Amino acid sequence: MGATTGVTASGDRPLPWRAPSPTTEITMTYPQPGNWSDPSWPQQQAGQPEGGYAPPAYPGYGYPPPMARPTNSLAIAALICSLAGIATCISAPVGAILGHVARRQIRERGEAGDGMALAGIIVGWIITGLMVLLIAFYVVIIIIAINSETSTTY
Questions:
Q1: Does residue 54 register a pLDDT over 60?
Q2: Which among 35, 43, 79, 129 would be 20 to 30 A from 25, CA to CA?
Q3: Residues 6+ apart with CB under 8 A from 102
Q4: pLDDT tens readout for residues 106-135
């Protein structure tokens, strides 16, 4: 036998479902605001605010959240000048010196940015040292080229 569709477990046939016709008007009624009551909900006590809201909370005790420390502007300038020294080779020593000044100000004022100032110092002095080595190398090459014993006759 085949599957019995449309038959309930008791063997009765369910009533066919019919959609309401488009001309049938469906009206729904709702209780008026303020007149609704549910016996399972607690009743409003006298003297409580309408709506069941709790009274506003008191402000918290203790200290306010800590303020963020401002970043030292010389530390930012030191890092920027030192990194710009990679391309220019002139601003690297300026960045290193600004980094030293920034670290002193950070210790005195309690500002943030010590890592940036330290990075400016390190990068600035490394680039300055490489620049000095490069200039010394050029000077040695020029001296060798001038003192070479190749003579030319015209």
A1: yes
A2: 35
A3: 72, 74, 75, 77, 78, 113, 116, 117, 120
A4: 999 999 999 999 999 999 999 999 999 999
The residue among 137 and 153 whose pLDDT is bigger is 137
3 state DSSP class of 149: coil
134, two tokens: 């490069």
pTM above 0.85, yes or no: no
Report the alpha-carbon distance of residue 97 to residue 81 in Å, rounded.
10
**DSSP 3-state of 60:** coil
The whole-angstrom separation of Cα 132 and Cα 90 is: 11
| Residue 14 Ramachandran class (φ > 0 left, ψ -120 to 50 alpha, else beta) | beta
Q: Tell me how far CA of residue 55 lies from CA of 49, 60, 104, 116, in angstroms.
A: 8, 15, 52, 49
Q: Measuring CA to CA, how many Å separate 84 from each of 77, 93, 120, 122?
A: 10, 11, 10, 13
